[in-house]
Design a protein that fits this description.
Membrane topology: Multi-pass membrane protein
Largest sheet: 10 strands, mixed
Main location: membrane
Catalytic activity: ATP + H2O + phospholipidSide 1 = ADP + phosphate + phospholipidSide 2; a 1,2-diacyl-sn-glycero-3-phospho-L-serine(out) + ATP + H2O = a 1,2-diacyl-sn-glycero-3-phospho-L-serine(in) + ADP + phosphate + H(+)
Strand order of the largest sheet: 4-23-22-21-5-17-20-19-18-24
GO biological process, one term: phospholipid translocation
Strand content: 5-15%
Distance between the termini: 13 Å
Number of strands: 24
Protein name: Phospholipid-transporting ATPase
Bound molecules: magnesium ion
Helix content: 40-55%
C-alpha cells in the first residue's frame, strides 16, 4: 500500500477536510487483486488509482500506526462481501432420510386405505344376504370417497407427528450439553463451546472430510525463535522443559508467555567464557541484528519491532533477549547495541528476498570499516554457495534435519568478506542491472548471484510457528477416526507444508504430489499423468499427500478436468491447498460436497473462512483473535481446534446414536399401535370401527409413551466418553451411518408390523369365545381394545428398555413409570363419566379388565412373545458378528463390576480394532513422476512478503527511527483503519 504522490503530503485532519474532488472507479466486484479508478482533484490533473492504493476490508496495518483514507466501497459492495455466498439452508442427513421415509409411509397409508376400501366392498358383497339386519351400502363413487376418507382418518396416526416435537426438544437439550461441556471450556478467555444450531447435532457424528484453515486455526500465528546451531553446537535443545510447556498449553494460546522462547544460558556462557566458538557466536547474533527489514519503533523505553515478516521479527526479538539489541534504523545504517556497546553498520545494499532466490542478503560496512555480506536463506541455496574454507557443514546439516523433523522453520546464516575492489566492480554491474527496463527483476537476481558466493557458514536458526494446543494429537486422533483432513489456506506453499509436518498431517515417509502449473494444458497434463501413475489405486486411500496452489486450482476446477482432479485428491490421505482465495476455499468444499456422498465439515477462524464454513454440511468457527465473523456464520463455535476431538468423537457419535434411536423408536411405536386398526378391520367387516377409545388414542403419543423417546434421545450412550476418545475407530460406526438408513428403517417397521400382529391376534383369539363377567356383564370390542392397548404400552415400553444400552434412573422412570401411568389412568378414566361428560363407553372398564385373570395372563405372555424375537435376533447378531463396540462395552462392564478385564478381552479389542483399520494400513507406492516428491524437506520457510508494492530496499531506506514520527493525529471518522 503506497499513498499517491498527490495526496502523500496530507497528514492532518485539517488538510484532509480541505481536499475536494471525486473518485471514479469500477463497479463493485469480487476480484481481490484488481482495482481500476481515477482520482480527480480540483485544479489538478487526474491520477490513476490501482490495487496498490486499496486497503481491503479486514486487512491489518503493519509498519505504521495510522493512515488517512477514503472509503470507496461499503457494506455489501466491499470486495470482501462480494466473495460471500448465499447462505444455504442446512439440514442433517438423518433428517433428509427421515423425511423421505415419512413420504413413503404416507403413500403406504393411502395404499392401506385403498385396500381397506376394497375390503369393505368385497365384505359387503359376500355377506350381503347374511347381514340383513345391517343396512347394506350402495357403493357409489361418493360413498367410496367417503370410505377412503374414513380409513385415512383411521390410519393417519401412522405418520408420527409427535416425532417432530420430540426431536426438537431432544436436539435442544443435546445442544445444551455441548454448551455446558467443561472439557470444551477455554478457561484462559472464558469461552464455552456454542451450538448455534441444533439441527446438525447428529451430523457431527458422520463427518468424513474435514476442511481446515491454517493460520489461527491450526496455528496461533505466533512465531518464536526456538533453537539455533552456531559453529556446530546446538542451542535451545532442552527437552526437560516439556512438562512446563504441557501445563501451559492447556491454557489459551494468548496466555502462553514468552518463557517458551529461546532460553538457553549455555549460549551466553560460551560467549562470555571465551569458548573457542565465541567469535562465531558474536558474528551470528550480529548478522541476525543487521540482515533483515525490521523497523524498530520506540515506545518509551520499549522497542516495538514492526515487521512485514513475522519470522524476521521473531529472530530480532530473540537476539534482543540475548543482549544484541537492534535499536535504530536510518536510511543508510542500522545501530546495534551489543552487550551495552553501540555499533553502527552502514547498509550499502539490500539483496532482496524472493521465493525464487530463497534468501536475502545485505552488504554492510562494519564499524571497523570492512565490507561484509550477510546472508540468510534456505539451506539448499546457502550450501551451494559456501566457500571451500567453510566449516561445520556436516554438523549443521544434521542439526537442520533434526529441526525439520520437529517441524521447525529453518534458515541458514552465512557471511562473506568482500574486498573494496570486488565490491566496486559488482556495484557497477548492479547499477546497470537496476536501470534495465525489461525484466529488471531477473537481471537484478543474476547480478545478486554474482556477489553471493564464497560464504562462510555460521549456523542456522529454527523458528517455531506455534501450533495451537494439542493440534498434532487431535489430528492423529481424527485420522484414526477415518476423517480425511484437507488444509485450505491463503498462505504460502512452504509454510503450509511446514505446518502440515509439525502437526503430523504429513509424515517423513509420505510422498507428495505437487501440482504447480500456470496454464490449463499443463494442469490437465499433470493431473492425467498422476492419475495414470496411480493406476488401480486411484480412488482408494493411499499414503500420499497432494499439494496444490490457488493458481493451479483455478485450472484444475475447470469442468473438463474437475472430475479427474477430484479423483486424484480423493486418492490422497492429506490434501494441502495453498494461496487460495476465500471463494476458492468454498469451491473446494462444494466440489467434495457435491461429488462425494459424504459429510463435510469446515473449520476456520477468520473472515476469509466464512464461505467454506457456510458451504460445508457442518461449519465450525474458532472464536480466536480475528473477530467474530467466522463464529457468527458457523453452526458450532469452539475456542480451540483441539476441542473438535470431543465435539465430533463424543458429542457427534452420541448425538447420532441418540437421534437415530429416537427416530426409529418413534416410528416403531406408532406403527405398532395403529396397524392394529388394520387387523381389527378384518374382524369388523372393514366398517371403520375404532378398537380403542378416542382419548386413549390421542394420549398415546402425548403421555403414555412420550417419556422413553426422550430418555433414548437425551441420555443414551453407546459407550463411555473415555472409550470413544481412546478408541477413535468407534467413530466409524456413526460415520458409516449403518445404524440409520432406509434398510434399517424398514426393518424396524417390519418388526413393528410383526409385533402389532401378535399384539392383536393373541388377545383376539384369547377372547374369541367371549365371557360373562361378574354382575352379568358381557364383554365387548372395547374390552378387547383395553386388553390390547395395555399390552401395546407394556411391549413398547419394554422395547425401549431393550434398545437402551446405558440404563440410568431416567430410563427406569420412563419405562416403568409409563406403564404405571396408563394403569392409573385406566382406573381413573373408568369413573369419569358422568361427572365429566366424556367417554361413557369407558365407564366401569377397569372393574372388568383388571379383575379378569385372562388379562393378567396375557399381560405377561403377550409382550414376552413379542420381545423374545428381538432378543434372539440381538443374540445371534452379537454372537456371530461381534463389533468393536460390543467388545468395548463388554470391557467397560467388566471394569464397572470391579473385575479386572481379562487379557483375552484386550486382545480381542485389539484384534477387532486392527480389522477395522485394515483399510488404512497401506503399502508404499513408488512411481517415477516429475511432480512426485519423496524427499524430506528441511522445513525451510521464510514468511517474507514478495512482490510487495514497495521493494524491501525502499522499505529499509524510507525509515529513520532517530527522528520522532509525527505525533499521532486525533483519530476520528476520517481515519479508515
Ligand atoms: Mg485464519
Amino acid at each position: 500500500m503506497v499513498a499517491l504522490l498527490e495526496t502523500a503530503e496530507m497528514q492532518t485532519e485539517k488538510q484532509l477536510s480541505s481536499l475536494s474532488g471525486k473518485i471514479e472507479c469500477e463497479g463493485p466486484n469480487r476480484h481481490f487483486n484488481t482495482f481500476i479508478g481515477t482520482l480527480y482533484l480540483n485544479g489538478k490533473s487526474p491520477v490513476p488509482i490501482g490495487p496498490d492504493q486499496i486497503l481491503l476490508r479486514g486487512t491489518q496495518l503493519k509498519n505504521t500506526q495510522w493512515i488517512l483514507g477514503i472509503v470507496v466501497y461499503t457494506g455489501f459492495e466491499t470486495k470482501f462481501m462480494q466473495n460471500s455466498i448465499k447462505l444455504p439452508l442446512k439440514r442433517s442427513n438423518v433428517e433428509k432420510v427421515t423425511n423421505v421415509q415419512i413420504l413413503v409411509l404416507f403413500l403406504l397409508l393411502l395404499a392401506m386405505s385403498l385396500v381397506s376400501c376394497l375390503g369393505a366392498i368385497l365384505w359387503n358383497d359376500w355377506y350381503r344376504k347374511g347381514i340383513w339386519y345391517i343396512r347394506t351400502k350402495d357403493y357409489s363413487s361418493h360413498s367410496l370417497g367417503f370410505d377412503l376418507l374414513v380409513f385415512i382418518i383411521l390410519y393417519h396416526n401412522l405418520i408420527p407427528i409427535s416425532l417432530l416435537v420430540t426431536l426438537e426438544i431432544v436436539k435442544c437439550v443435546q445442544a445444551m450439553f455441548i454448551n455446558w461441556d467443561e472439557d470444551m471450556h477455554c478457561k484462559g478467555n472464558n469461552v464455552y463451546a456454542m451450538a448455534r444450531t441444533s439441527n446438525l447435532n447428529e451430523e457431527l457424528g458422520q463427518v468424513k472430510y474435514l476442511f481446515s484453515d491454517k493460520t489461527g486455526t491450526l496455528t496461533c500465528n505466533i512465531m518464536t525463535f526456538k533453537k539455533c546451531t552456531i559453529a556446530g553446537i546446538i542451542y535451545g535443545n532442552q527437552s526437560d522443559r516439556s512438562d512446563i510447556n504441557l501445563e501451559k498449553l492447556s491454557l489459551s494460546p494468548s496466555v502462553i508467555t514468552e518463557s517458551c522462547e529461546f532460553n538457553d544460558p549455555k549460549l551466553l556462557q560460551n560467549f562470555e567464557n571465551d569458548h573457542p566458538t565465541k567469535d562465531y557466536i558474536k558474528e551470528f547474533l550480529t548478522l541476525l541484528c543487521v540482515c533483515h527489514t525490521v523497523v524498530p519503533e520506540r515506545d518509551g523505553k520499549n522497542i516495538i519491532y514492526q515487521a512485514s515478516s513475522p519470522d524476521e521479527a521473531a529472530l530480532v526479538k530473540g537476539v534482543k533477549k540475548l543482549g544484541f539489541v537492534f535499536t535504530t534504523r536510518t536510511p543508510t545504517s542500522v545501530t546495534v547495541e551489543a552487550m551495552g556497546e553501540n555499533f553502527t553498520f552502514e547498509i550499502l545494499n539490500v539483496l532482496e528476498f524472493s521465493s525464487n532466490r530463497k534468501r536475502m542478503s545485505v552488504i554492510v560496512r562494519t564499524p571497523t570499516g570492512n565490507l561484509r555480506l550477510y546472508c540468510k536463506g534456505a539451506d539448499t541455496v546457502i550450501y551451494e554457495r559456501l566457500s571451500e574454507d567453510s566449516r561445520f557443514m556436516k554438523e549443521t546439516l544434521t542439526h537442520l534435519e533434526y529441526f525439520a523433523k520437529e517441524g521447525l522453520r529453518t534458515l541458514c546464516v552465512a557471511y562473506a568478506d568482500l574486498t573494496e575492489e570486488e565490491y566496486q566492480q559488482w556495484l557497477t554491474q548492479y547499477e546497470k542491472a537496476s536501470t534495465v527496463i525489461q525484466d529488471r527483476m531477473r537481471s537484478l537476481e543474476e547480478c545478486y548471484d554474482n556477489i553471493e558466493k564464497k560464504f562462510l557458514l555460521l549456523g542456522a536458526t529454527a523458528i517455531e510457528d506455534r501450533l495451537q494446543a494439542r493440534v498434532p494429537e487431535t489430528i492423529t486422533t481424527l485420522l484414526k477416526a477415518n476423517i480425511r483432513i484437507w488444509v485450505l489456506t491463503g498462505d504460502k506453499r512452504e509454510t503450509t507444508i511446514n505446518i502440515a509436518y509439525s502437526c503430523k498431517l504429513l509424515s517423513a515417509h509420505m510422498p507428495h504430489i505437487q501440482l504447480n502449473s500456470n496454464s490449463f494444458e499443463a494442469t490437465q497434463q499433470a493431473v492425467t499423468q498422476n492419475c495414470e501413475a496411480l493406476g488401480t489405486r486411484l480412488g482408494k486411500e493411499n499414503d500420499l499427500a497432494l499439494i496444490i496452489d490457488g493458481e493451479t486450482l483455478k485450472y484444475a476446477l475447470h469442468s473438463e478436468i474437475k472430475r479427474s482432479f477430484l479423483n486424484l485428491a480423493l486418492s490422497c490421505r492429506a490434501v494441502l491447498c495453498c494461496r487460495l482465495s476465500p471463494l476458492q476455499k468454498a469451491e473446494i468444499v462444494n466440489l467434495v460436497k457435491n461429488h462425494v456422498g459424504a459429510i463435510t465439515l469446515a473449520i476456520g477462524d477468520g473472515a476469509n473462512d466464512v464461505g467454506m464454513i457456510q458451504m460445508a454440511h457442518v461449519g465450525v468457527g474458532i472464536s480466536g483473535n480475528e473477530g467474530v465473523l467466522a463464529t457468527n456464520n458457523s453452526d458450532y463455535s469452539i475456542a480451540q481446534f483441539s476441542y473438535l476431538e470431543k465435539l465430533l468423537l463424543v458429542h457427534g457419535a452420541w448425538n447420532h446414536f441418540r437421534v437415530t434411536k429416537c427416530i426409529l423408536y418413534c416410528f416403531y411405536k406408532n406403527v405398532v399401535l395403529y396397524i392394529i386398526e388394520l387387523w381389527f378391520a378384518f374382524v369388523n367387516g372393514f366398517s371403520g370401527q375404532i378398537i380403542f377409545e378416542h382419548w386413549c388414542i390421542s394420549l398415546y403419543n402425548v403421555i403414555f409413551t412420550s417419556l422413553p423417546p426422550f430418555t433414548l434421545g437425551i441420555f443414551e450412550q453407546c459407550c463411555s466418553q473415555k472409550s470413544l476418545l481412546t478408541h477413535p475407530q468407534l467413530y466409524r460406526i456413526s460415520q458409516a451411518g449403518n445404524t440409520f438408513n432406509t434398510k434399517v428403517f424398514w426393518f424396524q417397521c417390519l418388526n413393528a408390523l410383526i409385533h402389532s400382529f401378535i399384539l392383536f391376534w393373541m388377545p383376539m383369539k384369547m377372547l374369541e369365545h367371549d365371557m360373562v363377567l361378574q354382575g352379568g356383564h358381557t364383554t365387548d370390542y372395547l374390552f378387547l381394545g383395553n386388553f390390547i392397548y395395555t399390552y401395546v404400552i407394556v411391549t413398547v415400553c419394554l422395547k425401549a428398555g431393550l434398545e437402551t444400552l446405558s440404563w440410568n434412573k431416567f430410563s427406569h422412570l420412563a419405562i416403568w413409570g409409563s406403564i404405571l401411568i396408563w394403569l392409573v389412568f385406566l382406573a381413573i378414566y373408568s369413573f369419569v363419566w358422568p361427572t365429566i361428560p366424556i367417554a361413557p363407553e369407558m365407564r366401569g372398564q377397569v372393574n372388568m379388565v383388571l379383575v379378569c385373570p385372562h388379562f393378567w395372563l396375557g399381560f405377561f405372555i403377550v409382550p414376552i412373545v413379542c420381545l423374545i424375537l428381538n432378543l434372539i435376533w440381538k443374540l445371534i447378531i452379537n454372537t456371530c458378528n461381534r463389533t468393536l463396540l460390543e467388545e468395548i462395552r463388554e470391557l467397560e462392564s467388566s471394569r464397572a463390576q470391579g473385575l479386572y478385564p481379562p487379557k483375552m478381552f484386550k486382545r480381542r479389542v485389539e484384534a477387532t480394532k486392527l480389522r477395522m483399520s485394515v483399510a488404512s494400513t497401506l503399502q508404499k507406492i513408488v512411481f517415477p513422476n516429475e511432480s512426485f516428491d519423496q524427499s524430506i524437506p528441511h522445513g525451510y520457510a521464510f514468511s517474507q512478503v514478495e512482490q510487495a508494492v514497495i521493494t524491501q530496499e525502499e522499505l529499509v531506506r524510507s525509515y529513520n527511527t532517530t527522528k520522532s514520527k509525527s505525533s499521532k493525529i486525533s483519530m476520528d471518522s476520517s481515519d479508515s483503519r
